[in-house]
UniProtKB/TrEMBL annotation, chain A:
Protein name stated in the entry: Glucose/mannose transport system permease protein
Transmembrane segments: 15-33, 78-100, 106-125, 132-152, 158-178, 199-221, 227-246, 258-279
Membrane topology reported for the UniProt record: Multi-pass membrane protein
Domain ABC transmembrane type-1 intervals: 74-279
Gene3D superfamilies, alphabetized: MetI-like
Major site of localization recorded for this protein: membrane
Keyword set includes Nucleotide-binding: no
GO biological process, one term: transmembrane transport
Cell location: Cell membrane; Membrane
TrEMBL record, chain B:
Protein name from the UniProt record: ABC-type D-xylose/L-arabinose transporter
Cellular compartment(s): Cell membrane
Organism: Halarchaeum rubridurum
Quaternary structure and interacting proteins, as annotated: The complex is composed of two ATP-binding proteins (XacJ and XacK), two transmembrane proteins (XacH and XacI) and a solute-binding protein (XacG).
Domain ABC transporter: 4-239
GO MF annotation: an example: ATP hydrolysis activity
């Protein structure tokens, strides 16, 4: 009797567990699903929000219009996010190496500065930052000397800003990772004749791959999704990253463009999903270490 | 190959403004091709000494010379040394071949084929030729140990430094690697400094052993000398398994008295005792168990615990007046049958007795041993 009770108790528990899991899946996927079906409806009010359109009510016009409206922004975002991500991850890893594996004075105060950098609210630096790129280092004028349009300069400023604000968190992530490295291994490399530089290149860097996946995904998503810096430092126009035209998508039309907004959101989010898929395995490995 | 000289080497660490002396005025001359074992309890400064030789720690004071050249300020890479670490410290992302060629690539101008040749001959020596393309994670502990050694010998350095290289191996493999290391060092004839806390390794492997305690060098001697003629009470207690038994005694006329002992000493021995406050030391192996008291050197005791080891027994003995738990050990033949609670007699032969100054710990009288000449030869 007790055995069957225990058995039914266990199966009841796992049933409940699966029910909760299914509910959570629905909860997370419902907005995406609703967005997806809305983006392919000719008349968004024809059926309930989460139901797909009738075959006659299907349209791909929102998608083509969204892609057309966002194509330039997508390219700009790639030009922005790829170098900004790679640079902040690489510089963060170098900084972490210098602050963790090497031994020198004043490491701690400098590390404190880095940590403090993580907590700087972006809103607080918006005005000084835009002044900096406008007056102190006027990048949009500077690129004019080599015959480039002003928006290229704005984009360069935006890239450097993201690199600067991304380095602290990347440094911290790499530092946690490097702290677990076997100190004797680094010493062995020093005795083997490797210099500080070759130790980084031949030992530290190859062993950092999982953590690079973590920082690349994290930083890419951060930079890609940023609207605040993009709006203030570049603004609408030829250099605008995708988040800027996305925020205006649909609003400029006479109707309330739910369909095109939903399609636009998917178009804009696609690259981050691709990055997750590409680096996902490495990411899991990096997070678990 | 080179002579390695430590001249008044001192290391101070700074701990929140307080100075900690890790190594104090250590002077050791290590001959070309010699195998020197640095031994001591943990925290005694042996690893720090080794790391100073390697250049991983700065030297606070004194001079370090390799082949007559002062290397205090030289970077590790410029000292022509190779080190084997306790954790093996292999590069996990490289194959065995890459691990072993890394040092040659970084520190020499050898061509690729010359490097390959040297790596292959080193792997032959270590018997790991079939592992060349494996990564460290695919190797057993013993194999990793061999790779770590191979990585050191492929460099063909002037000096090998080894920091407890066998302590991560199981007992059987450790004994096997011990002999193998000795044979290897003899073949290569490279000056070697070997750090361990294991006195068996110290006794069996070293040409000479240097015993450190609290940053102070206690004695540098051949293993047999350290065993039979320890410089002080610390060395006497550290070298030898089980440890030497000590009794606090005072010289009173013709005898030393204390700790329940009343032990007569001969004139020869007494002449060497220049103080009254003494410690009497006797190795467990030198104590005999007999049936009856026949002379003043026989002491009636009670058997407390017997540890049978097969070939020998460690018998814990208690003097009649000493409190429970306060025992001394006799190491006797495994076929000697004694039981807990037996009343028995321990014979402490005078020729095997050591005396130490109780305050300074300095040895005043060491046991007699016949083959003193033999020991001197190996110096």
């Amino acid at each position: 009797m007790t055995e069957t009770n225990a058995l039914s108790g266990r199966s009841w528990r796992s049933t409940a567990l699966y029910a909760v899991l299914v509910l959570l899946v629905v909860f997370y996927l419902l907005p995406l699903w609703t967005g997806l079906v809305t983006s392919i409806k000719a008349d968004v009010l024809a059926t309930a929000p989460f139901l797909p359109p009738a075959p006659a009510g299907f349209t791909s016009v929102h998608w083509t219009r969204a892609v057309n409206a966002l194509a330039g922004g997508l390219v700009n975002s790639l030009i922005l996010a790829i170098p900004a991500t790679i640079l902040s991850a690489l510089l963060g890893s170098m900084a972490a190496y210098g602050l963790t594996t090497l031994d020198w004075r004043y490491q701690v105060p400098i590390l404190m500065l880095f940590i403090a950098g993580i907590f700087i609210p972006y809103q607080a630096v918006l005005i000084p930052l835009s002044k900096f790129w406008a007056s102190v280092v006027p990048v949009s004028d500077l690129v004019g000397y080599v015959g480039l349009a002003g928006w290229v300069g704005d984009l360069v400023g935006l890239i450097l800003s993201h690199v600067a604000y991304g380095i602290p968190i990347c440094t911290l992530l790499f530092r946690t990772y490097y702290k677990d490295f076997n100190e004797e291994m680094i010493e062995a490399a020093r005795l083997d004749g490797a210099t500080t530089h070759t130790i980084y290149r031949r030992i530290i860097l190859p062993l950092s791959v999982p953590m690079f996946a973590v920082t690349l995904i994290y930083q890419f998503t951060q930079v890609w999704n940023d609207l605040l810096f993009a709006l203030v430092l570049v603004g609408p126009g030829a250099g605008a990253p995708v988040t800027v035209p996305l925020s205006q998508l649909g609003a400029s039309l006479s109707e309330v463009g739910f369909g095109i907004r939903m399609a636009g959101a998917f178009v804009a989010a696609l690259p981050t999903i691709i990055v997750y898929v590409l680096f996902g395995d490495q990411f899991a490995e990096g997070v678990s270490t | 190959m080179a002579r390695l000289e430590l001249d008044d080497i001192t290391k101070h660490f700074d701990d929140d403004g307080e100075t900690i002396v890790a190594v104090d005025d250590a002077s050791i001359d290590i001959e070309d091709g010699e195998f020197l074992v640095l031994v001591g309890p943990s925290g005694c400064g042996k690893s720090t000494t080794l790391r100073m030789i390697a250049g991983l720690e700065t030297i606070t004071d004194g001079e370090l010379r390799i082949g007559g050249r002062r290397v205090n300020e030289a970077k590790p890479r410029d000292r022509d040394i190779a080190m084997v670490f306790q954790s093996y410290a292999l590069y996990p992302h490289m194959t065995v071949r890459e691990n072993m060629s890394f040092g040659l690539e970084e520190s020499t101008d050898l061509s690729g084929s010359e490097i390959d040749e040297r790596v292959e001959s080193a792997t032959d020596t270590m018997g790991i030729s079939d592992l060349l393309d494996r990564k460290p994670s695919e190797l057993s502990g013993g194999q990793q140990q061999r790779v770590a050694l191979g990585r050191a010998i492929v460099r063909e350095p002037e000096v090998f430094l080894m920091d407890e290289p066998l302590s991560n191996l199981d007992a059987k493999l450790r004994a096997q690697m011990r002999t193998e290391l000795q044979r290897l060092q003899e073949d290569l004839d490279t000056t070697t400094v070997y750090v361990t806390h294991d006195q068996t390794e110290a006794m069996t492997m070293g040409d000479r052993i240097a015993i450190l305690n609290d940053g102070l060098l206690q004695q540098v001697a051949t293993p047999l000398e350290a065993y039979h003629a320890p410089a002080n009470q610390f060395v006497a207690g550290f070298i030898g398994e089980p440890s030497m038994n000590f009794f606090d005694v005072d010289l009173e006329g013709d005898s030393v008295v204390g700790d329940g002992l009343d032990y007569p000493v001969s004139d020869d021995v007494r002449a060497k005792l220049d103080t009254d406050a003494l410690v009497l030391g006797i190795r467990p192996q030198d104590i005999e168990l007999v049936e009856e008291v026949e002379s003043g050197h026989d002491v009636a005791v009670t058997v407390d615990v017997v540890e049978p080891m097969g070939d020998e027994n460690n018998v814990y003995l208690r003097l009649p007046d000493s409190p429970a738990g306060e025992t001394f050990i006799a190491n006797v033949d495994g076929r000697t049958l004694v039981d807990e609670g037996d009343d028995i007699v321990a014979r402490i032969p005078e020729e095997a007795v050591h005396f130490f100054d109780r305050r300074s710990g300095e040895a005043l009288r060491n046991r007699e041993f016949d083959d003193e000449a033999d020991v001197d030869l190996s110096l």
